[in-house]
């Protein structure tokens, strides 16, 4: 069973790309550059029920299982256990984001309670996958290539998050920068998961 669970991090990394792509095929004229991933499950979206069903809920489970695996399998190594906790938190917040949709208009000045919960949960997701690679960066337990890739992941995520904020302000292509920012984190998860499996 543990050998199966060890692959859930890799599965989540692949699943999220496929899930977003598949859901977007059922959303007429959906733009991956101009629209957020969460707009697939937003209020009034044609994929409001489909998106969380194939994205948030199974992804949350995969994240939680991989985090559990890290905590359980590396009980004698605190840094990896903390990373596991961050992955579990990421999974729980993925569920929360699926259960509480964002508003149809991402630029609304009066967001609903559901949208506020969604936004705060998304922020925690962002932070959890900044903390995790930073732990790898400063832990001599991990190989130097993984540590280097981890710091590059954080730098890329922060940079594209900054570009996202600017793009949101200018109403240009926030969807593109959201994908690049989160893409840095998911790529890190994939590489870290492979490291865990082959170690």
Describe this structure in words.
There is one protein chain. The radius of gyration is 17 Å and the shape is globular. The protein has 199 residues and is mostly helical. The mean pLDDT is 97. The chain has one domain (2-198). The protein is built from eight helices and no strands. The protein has helices spanning 2-5, 8-24, 50-54, 56-73, 78-99, 113-137, 144-170, 174-198. The two termini are 18 Å apart. 72% of the residues lie in helices and 0% in strands. Pfam families: DUF998. InterPro entries: DUF998 (IPR009339). Keywords: Membrane, Transmembrane, Transmembrane helix.
Give a short overview:
With 199 residues, the chain is mainly alpha-helical.
Structural topology:
Blueprint: H1 2-5, H2 8-24, H3 50-54, H4 56-73, H5 78-99, H6 113-137, H7 144-170, H8 174-198
Helix pairs in contact: 2-4, 2-8, 4-5, 5-6, 6-7, 6-8, 7-8
């Amino acid at each position: 069973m543990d050998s199966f669970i060890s692959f859930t991090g890799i599965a989540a990394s692949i699943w999220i790309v496929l899930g977003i792509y598949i859901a977007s095929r059922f959303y007429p004229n959906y733009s991956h550059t101009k629209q957020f991933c969460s707009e697939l499950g937003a209020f009034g979206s044609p994929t409001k029920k489909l998106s969380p069903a194939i994205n948030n809920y199974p992804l949350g489970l995969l994240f939680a299982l991989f985090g559990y695996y890290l905590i359980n399998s590396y009980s004698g190594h605190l840094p990896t256990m903390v990373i596991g906790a961050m992955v579990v938190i990421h999974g729980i917040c993925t569920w929360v984001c699926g259960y509480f949709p964002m508003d149809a208009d991402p630029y609304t000045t009066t967001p609903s309670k559901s949208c506020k919960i969604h936004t705060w949960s998304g922020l925690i997701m962002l932070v959890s996958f900044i903390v995790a690679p930073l732990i790898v960066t400063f832990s001599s337990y991990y190989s130097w290539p993984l540590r280097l890739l981890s710091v590059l992941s954080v730098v890329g995520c922060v940079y594209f998050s900054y570009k996202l904020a600017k793009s949101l302000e200018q109403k240009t292509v926030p969807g593109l920068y959201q994908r690049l920012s989160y893409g840095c984190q998911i790529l890190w998860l994939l590489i870290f998961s492979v490291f865990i499996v082959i170690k």
